[in-house]
Structures are given as C-alpha cells and as structure tokens.
C-alpha cells in the first residue's frame, strides 16, 4: 500500500493502513514525578516530623510545608549543563509551642527536564524504573513456592519435600503450615478440628505428626516467635493483594472436576460446570469434594486388602496379568471380571497400585507415611475456599447502593454481607491456601497460578514510589546522625537550613547505592529515550535465576524482546515497549476486539482499544493483525498463529482458525522499544542481530554532515515529540513574536502567547547540540511546521548518519568486519565531540597559581597554547615565573577552563575542547542492522569502483557479512534507498508493517523503466497502483533518472568499472544506498602507547599489565588481534606481545636488562608465560604431570616456586643513580650479585 506526501517528499509504504501508536515515551515517569512533587512529598515531610518526635527530646513538633518555585542556574552557565536545578521544600516549624519566624529549606527535589533527566547538583542522572513483584498470588515451579506479595512484604509458602508446606518466617526460620493453622484457629475459634475438612494424605500426614500436642501448646510455641502479632501488623497488610488472594482461593479452581459428594441438587458424579459454580456462589458454599487419586505413593498399607471384582476399563497391571492371563495383552480389562487379589499389610504402595485401587472403586485406604502416624486416605480431594464471594455472584445486577459488582465480601457469620476487615491473613485464608498447595503438589501440570517472572506479574516503581521509599529509609538515619546539632539549634532558636543540608545528600546517596540512578547517556537523543524507558528488575540477591533472563509470553507488547544489554544485565535490564501503558504500576498493552457476525465469521476489527495486563490476556485467543487475510472486504478463515489459553492458565502458541480469535494486537509495532522501532525491515533480520543493532544505534555520534535517511521508520519523525531539546514544532497556526536570548516567543492566531525556553548550544561530556532556527521574527507558520531543528534532527527527522552508495564487493581491505571508504565518505563523517585535557601542577604552600581565561572560544591546534600560567610567591614578590598549558595531541575549539577546587596540594585545571574529527582509518562504522565494521582504508575517490555513468561508490561492504549475520534487511534497505535516491524522495517503511519484497521489486522495476525509457508518462501509465503524485515527482526527476540508463539491472545489481584495471568486473554486483553511522569508538580516543615495562603496574595474580591509559597500561591483545599478527607474519612482534609485553615475567626482566645493557638473568630451562605455569600447577593438583622430552619447560615443584626470584629493576636503577660514577661498573656487578644471588 503506497501513499505519497508531495510537500515533504515522503513515500509511505505499508502492508496495512493503520493509525500510529500513541507513544507516551516519558508519560508515566513524568506523571509519577509530578505526583511526588505535588502530593507525596508532603506525606514524607509528615514522616520527618514523626521521626523528629520519636528521636529528639521535644514533646511536640509541627510544621507547615510548601514546595517552592523551580530554581535554576543562569543561562550563561547552561553551556556545560553544570548549574543545579531543583525545587526547594520549605518548612515553618512550631516546636514545643514556639513558632520559628523564618521558613527553613529542608530538602531539594531535583528538577526533571523534558527528556526525563534529573539534575542532581548539576550532574545529569536518569532514574531507572524498577520492576518488582506485583500484589498477586504466584507460583514458582522451580522453587516449589507459592508467593503472596503484599505491598510491603512477601509471604512464601514452600513445599518441604514430601513432608509439609512451610511458611517462611524471617531470614532462616520456617514454620509448618499445619502448626500455623492450629495456632490461628486457637485464637480465632473458627473450627473444632481443622484437619477433619481435609482428605489429602499430604496434609493429613502433616497433622498426624503433632496429633499429641494441644492447640494451646502450639499457640504458646508460636507466640514466643511473635508470629501472630507480626502477620497482623502493618508490614503484612494485604491491601490490593486481598482481591488477588480471594480470586486464587475461589472454588472456581474446581471447574471440570467430578463431584464425589452431592452439592445441593447436584448428585455425586456430576461434573463441575458454570451451573454448579453459580449455585455454589449463590448459596455461599465454602468447601466441596471432588474425585481424585490420593497422593499415597510410597506409603505403607496398615490393613490387608482383598479385591474380588474388577470393572471393565480398569488399567492393566502386573497383578491383573497374573490373575487374568487371558487379558495380558490388553492395556485395559475389556469386561467385568471376578478375581481374588490380595494386598498384604506393610506393603508399599506404588503408582500402579494406587491407580488400580482407584479403578476398582475403593473408597479409602488405611496407610502411613514413614515416620508419621497412620491415616485414612480417601479417593477424593477437598476444594476449600476462604469464605469470600463477589457481590455480583450473589445479587446479580441488583447491587445495593454504594457497593460494587466486583467487590469481595466475607460471608462467614455475615448474612447481610456487610463490609468487614479483611486486610490481614486469617484462619480461612490459611485453610484455603493449605488446600491449594496440596492441589498444586499433586497436580503440578494443572496449576492455574502464573509464575511472577514468566507471567510478568510485576509492577513498575517510578519516581513517586522510588523517591518516597528512599526518603523513608533515609529519614531515621538522618535525624539520628544530626540529632545533636538539630537539638542544639532548637534550644537556641536558631534552626536554619544548614541543619538539614545533609538530608538531600543522604537521599541521593541512597538512590545511587541502590542502583536506582544512572549517569545520563547523552551520546545521542535515542540513547536518552532508551535509558529513560528502561525497566530494571529490582533484585536483592547476587544470584540471578536463569528464568529471569528468558523471554515469556507476558513480555509481548509490554517489554521489547530485542533491546537488552549483554553480559550480567542480560534480561535483567529491559526496555518498555512503545505500545505499553503503565496503569497503577501494572504494564498493559493494547488490543482490538475481533467482531463477528451470527455465523461466527469475522465482520470487522473494532476501532476501540482495550488495554490488558498479562493475567487478563491469558483468557483469550489473540492473533497478529498482519496475519489476517482478506478477499476484498471479507476476512478469510485461514490458519494463523495465535496465543491461546493453556489448561494450566498459561499461554501457548498454536495454529488456529482465524475465526476463533478473540482479539488482535492494536498496532503492528507495539511490541518494539523506541530503539528497535528505528530499524527498517527488522522483521527480516535475525533476532540477535536486532539486539546488537539497538546497541549500535545508541552508540552512534553526531556528524556534521548528517543527512535525513532515505529510508526511515515512523519513529524517526516521532521520537522528539516529547521534548523541545532537538526539535520545536508549531502547535498551532501563528507567527514569531520575538527571539530573545534563550527563548522563542510565539503568538498563535487564537490570541494565546507561548514562551518556549531553549538552549541554543548545549555541551555534555558525550555530545554537542547546536540548534538551527528555521524562522525569524515576524515569520508566519502553520501547525506542525518545524520552527527549530538541529544537526541530529534535520527537518524534525532523526538524522544521525549519512546515505552512502555501497556495493557488496569483496576486497582484500574489507575482509571480515572491515569496510573500505572513499575520501568523499570520510569527509561526510566529521564528528563533533568533547575533549577534556587535565593539567596537574604542583605548587608550594606559599605559592599561588593563576591561569588566564582570555583564550576561550578560539581554535587550539595540536600542542597549541591553551592558556598562560603565572606563578607568584606569596612571601617574595620577586619570585615570579610564567608557563603555558598546551593541548598535546588534542585539537579543537576551547570553550571552557575550570579548576578542580577539591585538590589542595595540586593545582588541577580541566580544559574543555570541541574537537572536529574526520573519519580516519580505525574508526568504527555501522549500519542499522548490526553490520558493524572498522574503516580499514580510505581511498581516493578516483580509485573507487564506479557505475557506467561515472558515479563512484562511497563504501565497499563484504558480501559474506550478510548470510553470516542473517540480516537480509540491510539489502532491502539498500535497494529502497537507491530507489529513493533516484526519485529524490524519502521512504517511510516500518519494521514489520512496511515494504514487502514484492513492493521493492515493483519500485525497482519502476525506476529501471524510467531510466531506460524516454517517455516518462508512458512508463507511469503502466503503474496505476502507485500514487499519481509520485508519478508527478518521477516526471520532474526524469532527466536525472535518465542519466542511469544501462547502469543497473532491475534485480538490484550492476556491472561496475574497476579503475585499477580499466575494465568492468566480470560479474554483476549487488549495490544500494544504505544509511551508515559513525560509532563513538573513534580511533583518536583509543590512541595510547604502553607506559613501558619500568613504569607499568602489573597484577599480582595474573602478572598481566594493567589495562588503559589512565593506569599507565595499554590495550590488551585479544584472539582476533593475535590471529591478525599471525596472518601478517609479524613473528617477532607476536612473540613480544605474548611474552615480554604479557605475563612472561622472566622474559620481561631480561628484555629490560638488555635495553639497559646489563647482563641477563638466567635460570634452569626456558622462560614461559605465567599462565602456562599456573596451568601446570592446576594439573599437579589433579594428579597429572606435564612432561616433555626436550626439557624446555621449567620444573614444576615446591622448591622451584619458593626459590625463584624476580629482579627489582626499579631498585637497580635507583641505586645506580646514587652510586659513584667512577666505580659504576664495579658497583653494578656487586649490585647484580646481590640481587640475583
């Protein structure tokens, strides 16, 4: 489906016409922040008063709080974004009746800008939203644990092997469930004997273990642990969990089972269906019994059994094969038969025996578990509720006034169904939970509780919750720490804001220590958007369960399946999908109802959006909107892949008829993150490659010659809608009133006036942003017009890279991940970055150092003068000297010099430069499909292969990188980019609902016909499926398109001319115009030499040099580097890299000694790297000895390890300097003897 916008020259290609997703990228985080700013902060301040009353020696503390206006630094300081910005919180205290006259600033709430970045004392930080367990009831099969998550605590019911269910209490204590029930029952006096309601052998055996103890004795035992008081306290209040608990404990879990006892008018043997359940709810029945096989496998019979009759259909087993040999070959007995089978006491029951007793209709069996008292297990199972029911199940639609249909009520001793306190666990809950656990233990495959990780039973904590939780954790410690100074200030009536200055610092430190804050990744706009949409699993353990890293059905439409970091954070840090909405902390995703006619056929798809969480959608059949096929206006009943409910309340994917679907996804890209939505043809790439591509998009840096992508997705237009940092669009028609410094004043046609604050130039440690005005004072504009843009957002479209002519052609210089570029392409990738040059100057205690600032805002060449330095002695005016600060290997525009005032003995100055870096050999580049590579060579334009019309290629990519990476999407993008280049348009194609292979073939044939035909109108008449406005554009561009006649084939290949040979290449080459990015891994940032063997520090364990220029070390040589050295035949350098520059200590020492013209140190055998020695030691511990005939390896024994010494070269040189020059040779010989023994 094609549509063309001639005003913006955008050709939109879609499989299905649909509305765009309502993004709301920062909506929930900003709403949560505003809620804290306007509401929650006041309750936190009330908590401050409560803590002060408890910890300070004052009888009464009151205060009036208010949040002040936003404070921010001056505009001239905004260039480096270092000025603090915050909302002050003021308090006017009244203590012991005395009213303090002045307001005191007690706290500072960091300001959040339009991009979701917080300003902590000038530092840019991002608050990461946390995912914690929601207030639900869940079951973890791997841990065999039922979890009841309350707003503050988690109650865990664990299966203790085959013995009992235990409830976790404290870090290590576990209490048997049957003891807890007896203790609760002794206090609440609900049941005469709770054990009589159960028929499960698993539960009855647990009750039998303490049958001799009285309820009062067990109550006293648990009272010593203060359990009842703890579970009745505020920490274990159920809150929203009560509804989820009531639903989990409802008798609805008996649906589909066979009654073993009559229920009202329903006889035993009736299957539990909606009619039975309606009767149960209406008449407030709390327990029913259904047929079941008892869980007595492994139990011992306590009474002899004799079976004389076997009904038809009984499963065959070894006993029946012996008693009825004529039916030995049958899987089930075909007819009623008389037998005489004897089962003796003390015989252990097997699974086959229990099934046999069930088939022959046994009512019960007397048995015992080893170590437990005898029990009578019946062939039925109890289903116990917790005496709760929904009002709608009782009253139907006649709900009493002021009550609700979904309201839960307790009907125990409550005939009028009045509201009662159900905020804590009671005996009814524990009884129903015990029955539920026994059901799960015996029928794990029929469990209907979702796993909180796989089922995504999580809630999201944003600014409001995280700020408040941190404040309540910090306040008691703050008041304790400053209690003396605050008490003294109160007594002297001098309570000032300085007494509360530490509160903001402690609060920030708590957020940082808990990893709730992260340094803002401002390398490009999409990196900021992705970071502010991160969802981090809040874990309080070092061991991360493997299942938490896996994808599950609950992720769809809520968490992006692609974007997650590699390494330890894999699957732990995720990104919210663009279609997801957070409602009351729960992640939901949009769906559309499938509307059907009376025949069950699909009539249409509803336009109404329904948001559902993971638990709600598990009840429906949900398919993909793109999978529905139509014949004209009629939907076809084809087979489609859909998520369908499974018997255990899980979700599976099956192929079903389209007419059986209940819902479809509302948008085709709703499951993608903002970064993944930037990748055109992502559906044609391998999923892992899409993950890598999202990381590369976040690593791309600003280039001066950036261009609008010829092929982009709708996200490129919409990723700036939430902010004015990079693009400002007109909200309504109007004109520009005035453009003062730092503002844009607009007047709309309806009379309203808007002042938009802007930062024309912003510089961070990672990026630079310059705004470009499209309007001037007095200009008129229309709604949607771009008023201001930037190099990263040209015309309001995200533009991080450059469109290049590329060919997939193998050359020696683009082997593996290397790419070959032209000078033209290198000049397009001039990146703007920031460089910080640190100068440390020692100064005496009586000396002052002054650096001039008159050199700012000018270009500094390499090793150029940054500023002049004057030294002046405070005691002697004549002691005056001058020096200069130089840029060293850096160059750029100097825009700021600042001093680090934390240093006392050193005068430390930081000079900040704006550097302009042309693409160089060694710089990393990438496409949008994880096709990353390093620039191996930059050729002259005339040396690059060219088309028959003389147009040179800009970049050569290795064709082997396509099938190996399984990212065919880069070819589709290249083809479509070439088509857009010829037509001089921009193509919008979304990752999934975008151009198909057939669309690309059609458009390629279209431009080929235009290039090879003189009459453009006749060509356009052959393509009626394309928009007429596109034909008009093609006719205007026909002269330029004709220049490509005979230069390419309609299949996307071309014969290229090789200037090196003066001939055409033998075979056609795939080509196109992909969009290329420059990554932050620039080679000028990676330049640093090794400090040298004398200056470097080495690890005591691995003997390897430290890594990085900051530590005086160097870059490590990995496997790929060593293979490259071997391929080039650099044997000497390879040996040096693996020995003296690595962990071969002896070779390192001897290399240094040879450099100093000193005698080498020798030992028995050749020297080997330390890693080899350690490997031999490990083999020795395992009882293996590594031997070799030529004895090149040093001995591996304790004596060698103890006696071996390593010379101290630094000591040799230092003592050499102080030795007598005339006796230098003799001194060195004695010194060496002393050093080496």
Please give a structural write-up.
With 1237 residues, the chain is α+β, with helices and mostly antiparallel strands. Among the domains are: 177 residues, no CATH class; 183 residues, Dna-directed Rna Polymerase Ii 140kd Polypeptide, Chain: B, domain 3 (Alpha-Beta Complex), CATH 3.90.1110; 86 residues, no CATH class; 65 residues, OB fold (Dihydrolipoamide Acetyltransferase, E2P); 88 residues, no CATH class; 115 residues, no CATH class. Helices cover 26% and strands 26% of the residues. The protein has a nine-stranded mixed β-sheet with strand order 49-67-59-60-51-61-50-66-63. Strands 3, 4, 5, 6, 7, 8, 9 and 26 form an eight-stranded antiparallel β-sheet that branches. The N and C termini lie far apart (86 Å). The C terminus is likely disordered.
According to DSSP, the number of beta strands is 67
CATH fold-type name of the domain at 135-250 and 385-451: Dna-directed Rna Polymerase Ii 140kd Polypeptide, Chain: B, domain 3
Record the strand order, biggest sheet: 49-67-59-60-51-61-50-66-63
Count of helical regions: 33
**Could you tell me the radius of gyration in angstroms?**
38 Å
The shape is globular
Largest sheet, in brief, is:
9 strands, mixed
Terminal-residue CA separation: 86 Å
Give the overall average pLDDT. 84
Low-pLDDT runs? 74-81, 1198-1205, 1220-1237
Q: Which percent range describes the beta-strand content?
A: 25-35%
Structure class: alpha+beta
Helix content: 25-40%
CATH class of the domain at 135-250 and 385-451: Alpha Beta
Give the CATH architecture of the domain at 135-250 and 385-451.
Alpha-Beta Complex
Keywords: DNA-directed RNA polymerase, Nucleotidyltransferase, Transcription, Transferase
Family: Belongs to the RNA polymerase beta chain family.
Domain RNA polymerase Rpb2: 520-582
Catalytic activity: RNA(n) + a ribonucleoside 5'-triphosphate = RNA(n+1) + diphosphate
């Amino acid at each position: 489906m094609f549509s063309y916008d001639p005003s913006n020259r955008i050709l939109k290609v879609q499989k299905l016409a649909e509305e765009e997703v309502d993004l709301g990228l920062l909506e929930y985080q900003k709403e949560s922040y505003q809620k804290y700013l306007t509401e929650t902060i006041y309750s936190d301040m009330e908590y401050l008063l409560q803590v002060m009353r408890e910890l300070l020696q004052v009888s009464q503390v009151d205060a009036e709080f208010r949040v002040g206006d936003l404070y921010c630094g001056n505009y001239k300081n905004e260039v480096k974004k270092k000025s603090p910005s915050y909302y002050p919180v003021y308090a006017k205290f009244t203590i012991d009746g005395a009213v303090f006259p002045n307001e005191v600033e007690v706290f500072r709430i960091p300001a959040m800008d339009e991009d979701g970045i917080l300003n902590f004392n000038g530092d840019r930080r991002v608050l990461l939203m946390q995912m914690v367990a929601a207030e639900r009831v869940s079951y973890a099969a791997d841990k065999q644990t039922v979890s009841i998550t309350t707003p503050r605590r988690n109650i865990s019911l664990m299966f203790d092997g085959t013995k009992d269910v235990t409830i976790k209490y404290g870090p290590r204590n576990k209490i048997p469930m049957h003891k807890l029930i007896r203790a609760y029952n002794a206090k609440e006096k609900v049941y005469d004997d709770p054990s009589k309601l159960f028929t499960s052998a698993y539960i009855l055996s647990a009750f039998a273990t303490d049958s001799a103890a009285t309820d009062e004795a067990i109550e006293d035992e648990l009272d010593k642990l203060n359990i009842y008081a703890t579970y009745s306290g505020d920490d274990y209040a159920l809150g929203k969990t009560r509804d989820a608990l009531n639903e989990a404990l409802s008798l609805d879990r008996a649906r589909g089972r066979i009654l073993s006892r009559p229920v009202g008018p329903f006889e035993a043997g009736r299957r539990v269906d909606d009619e039975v359940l309606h009767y149960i709810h209406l008449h407030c029945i709390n327990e029913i019994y259904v047929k079941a096989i008892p869980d007595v496998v492994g139990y011992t019979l306590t009474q002899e059994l004799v079976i004389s009759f076997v009904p038809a259909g009984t499963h065959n087993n070894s006993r029946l094969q012996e008693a009825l040999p004529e039916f030995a070959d049958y899987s089930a007995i075909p007819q009623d038969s008389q037998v005489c089978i004897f089962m003796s006491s003390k015989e252990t029951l097997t699974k086959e025996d229990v099934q046999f007793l069930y088939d022959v209709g046994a009512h019960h069996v007397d048995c015992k578990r080893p170590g437990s008292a005898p029990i009578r297990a019946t062939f039925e199972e109890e289903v116990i509720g917790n005496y709760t029911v929904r009002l709608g199940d009782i009253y139907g639609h006649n709900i009493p006034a002021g009550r609700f249909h979904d309201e839960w009520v307790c009907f125990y001793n409550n005939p009028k169904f009045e509201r009662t306190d159900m905020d804590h666990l009671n005996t009814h809950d524990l009884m129903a939970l015990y029955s539920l656990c026994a059901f799960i233990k015996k029928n794990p495959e029929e469990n209907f509780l979702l796993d909180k990780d796989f089922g995504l039973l999580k809630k999201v904590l944003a600014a409001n919750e995280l700020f408040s939780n941190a404040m309540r954790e910090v306040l008691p410690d703050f008041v304790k720490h400053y209690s003396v100074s605050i008490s003294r200030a109160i007594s002297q009536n001098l309570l000032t804001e300085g007494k509360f200055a530490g509160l903001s610092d402690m609060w920030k430190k708590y957020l940082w220590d808990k990893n709730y804050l992260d340094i803002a990744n401002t390398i490009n706009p999409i990196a900021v958007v992705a970071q502010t949409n991160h969802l981090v699993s809040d874990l309080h353990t070092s061991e991360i369960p493997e299942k938490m890293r896996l994808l599950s059905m609950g992720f769809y439409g809520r968490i992006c399946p692609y974007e997650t970091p590699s390494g330890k954070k894999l699957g732990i840090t995720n990104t919210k999908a663009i279609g997801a909405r957070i409602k009351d902390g729960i992640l939901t995703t949009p769906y559309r109802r499938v509307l059907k006619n009376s025949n069950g056929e699909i009539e249409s798809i509803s336009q109404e959006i329904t948001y559902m969480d993971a638990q709600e959608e598990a009840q429906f059949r949900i398919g993909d909107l793109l999978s529905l096929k139509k014949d004209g206006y009629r939907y076809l009943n084809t087979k489609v892949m859909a998520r369908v409910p499974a018997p255990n309340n899980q979700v599976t994917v099956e192929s079903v008829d389209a007419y059986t679907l209940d819902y479809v996804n509302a948008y085709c890209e709703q499951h993608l993150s903002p970064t993944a939505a930037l990748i055109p043809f992502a559906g044609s790439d391998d999923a892992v490659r899409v993950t890598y591509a999202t990381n590369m998009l976040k690593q791309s840096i600003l280039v001066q010659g950036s261009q609008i992508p010829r092929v982009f997705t709708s996200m490129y237009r919409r990723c700036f809608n939430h902010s004015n940092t990079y693009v400002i669009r007109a909200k309504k028609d109007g004109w520009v009133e005035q453009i003062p410094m730092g503002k844009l004043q607009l007047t709309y046609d309806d009379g309203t006036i808007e002042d938009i604050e802007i930062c024309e130039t912003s510089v961070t440690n990672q990026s630079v942003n310059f705004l470009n005005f499209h309007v001037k004072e007095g200009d008129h504009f229309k709604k949607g017009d771009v008023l201001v843009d930037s190099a990263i957002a040209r015309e309001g479209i995200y533009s991080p890279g450059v469109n290049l002519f590329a060919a997939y052609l193998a050359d020696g210089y683009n082997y593996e991940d290397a790419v070959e570029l032209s000078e033209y392409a290198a000049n397009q990738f001039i990146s703007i970055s920031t460089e910080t040059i640190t100068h440390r100057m020692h100064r005496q205690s009586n000396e002052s150092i002054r650096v001039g600032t008159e050199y700012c805002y000018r270009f500094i060449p390499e090793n150029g003068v940054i500023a002049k330095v004057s030294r002046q002695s405070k005691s002697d005016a004549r002691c005056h000297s001058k020096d200069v600060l130089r840029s060293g290997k850096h160059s750029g525009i100097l825009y700021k010099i600042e001093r680090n005032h934390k240093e006392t003995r050193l005068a430390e100055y930081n000079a900040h430069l704006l550097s302009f870096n042309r693409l160089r050999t060694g710089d990393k580049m990438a496409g949008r499909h994880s096709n990353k590579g390093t620039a191996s060579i930059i050729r002259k334009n005339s040396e690059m292969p060219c088309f028959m019309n003389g147009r040179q290629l800009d970049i050569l990519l290795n064709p082997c990188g396509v099938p190996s990476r399984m990212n065919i999407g880069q070819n589709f993008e290249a083809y479509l980019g070439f088509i857009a280049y010829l037509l001089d348009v921009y193509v919008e194609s979304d990752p999934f609902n975008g151009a198909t292979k057939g669309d690309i073939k059609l458009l390629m044939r279209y431009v080929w016909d235009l290039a090879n035909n003189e009459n453009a109108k006749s060509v356009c008449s052959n393509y009626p499926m394309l928009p007429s406005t596109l034909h008009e554009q093609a006719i205007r561009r026909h002269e330029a398109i004709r220049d490509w006649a005979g230069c390419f084939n309609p299949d996307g290949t071309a014969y290229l001319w090789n200037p090196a040979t003066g001939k055409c290449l033998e075979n056609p080459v795939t080509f196109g115009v992909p969009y290329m990015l420059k990554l932050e891994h620039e080679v000028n940032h990676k330049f640093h030499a090794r400090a040298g063997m004398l200056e470097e520090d080495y690890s005591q364990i691995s003997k390897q040099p430290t890594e990085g220029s900051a530590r005086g070390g160097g870059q490590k040589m990995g496997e790929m580097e060593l293979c490259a050295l071997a391929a080039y035949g650099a044997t000497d350098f390879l040996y040096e890299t693996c020995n003296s520059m690595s962990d071969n200590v002896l070779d390192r020492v001897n290399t240094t000694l040879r450099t100093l013209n000193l005698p080498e140190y020798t030992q028995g055998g050749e020297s080997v790297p330390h890693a080899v020695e350690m490997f031999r030691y490990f083999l020795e511990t395992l009882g293996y000895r590594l031997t070799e005939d030529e004895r090149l390896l040093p001995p591996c024994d304790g004596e060698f390890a103890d006696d071996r010494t390593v010379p101290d070269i630094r000591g040799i040189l230092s003592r050499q300097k102080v030795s007598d020059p005339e006796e230098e040779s003799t001194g060195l010989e004695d010194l060496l003897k002393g050093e080496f023994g």
